[in-house]
Amino acid sequence: MFKKLFILLFITITSLATTAQTSTQKELEIIETPEQVKSYLESKKSNKNKLIKFNEEKHKTILAKELFKLSVGGTKTNENEFEKTFYKVINKTSKTYYRIAYIYLDGNKYDKANIDALRDRIISKYKGGVPFDFLAKQYSMDRNANKGGDLGWFTKGEMHPDFENKILNGNYNLNDIYTIDVPSKKWYYIVLNTHEPKNISEIEVLKIVEARN
User: Fold this and answer.
1) pLDDT tens digit sequence for 162-195
2) What is the model's pTM?
């Protein structure tokens, strides 16, 4: 008798868990548009539930790699002792990214003539064999100096238009060094093209977390 009750209880619990999982998965199946995502997140009312953007260059975790293998609409479920987490790929795109290193000179501290003279001196040192990252740490006047001037990957629209336009449309090649002026801001730069433009995949993933019963 006890054995039968135990088996019945086990079947009931398993059935409830399966129903809960199926319910969430069915809800996720019909979600496709940004409006549907927004409404669904509002109905869930939890800080753990969110729309996350993954960049294939920046995000190298096992989870991110698994999600990038999915097509749009694909889902993945992870679970532990306390929670069950559902992921659904909502959108997948590819954007062109750029990467340069720079030395920033502050026009509020030096006049233009002194800045031009300093830039000529720095460029001359670089062409004479001094590494750019060393020069950036020595001369650059912002916090990026600590990174040797490396700006990291960026895409169109993220930077000041005057700065961005010359990098994207200046017909410069890999390892070219040149200057950029943003007079309205008194920003003056020496720029080194450190990488070729690169198409990088991005995905938007809906993440839903539920407590396990």
Assistant:
1) 999 999 999 999 999 999 999 999 999 999 999 9
2) 0.70
Round to whole Å and give the CA distance between 176 and 167: 11
Count structural domains, the chain. Answer: 2
173 and 118 share a domain? yes
CB 72 within 8 Å of CB 173: no
Nearest-CA neighbor of 42 among 31, 54, 58, 57?
31
**Count of CB atoms situated within 10 Å of the CB of 195:** 14
**Claim to verify: residue 11 and residue 31 sit in the same structural domain:** yes
Model confidence over 90-141: pLDDT tens digits? Answer: 999 999 999 999 999 999 999 999 999 999 999 999 999 999 999 999 999 9
Residue-range definition of the domain harbouring residue 115: 96-199
d(Cα 96, Cα 13) in Å, to the nearest integer? 50
Output the CA torsion 125→128→130→136 (10° steps): 30
Q: Are residues 207 and 168 located together in one domain of the fold?
A: no
Q: Are 107 and 186 in contact (CB under 8 A)?
A: yes
Q: How far apart are CA 175 and CA 101, in angstroms?
A: 10
Residues in CB range of 211: below 8 A, 6 or more apart: 82, 83, 84
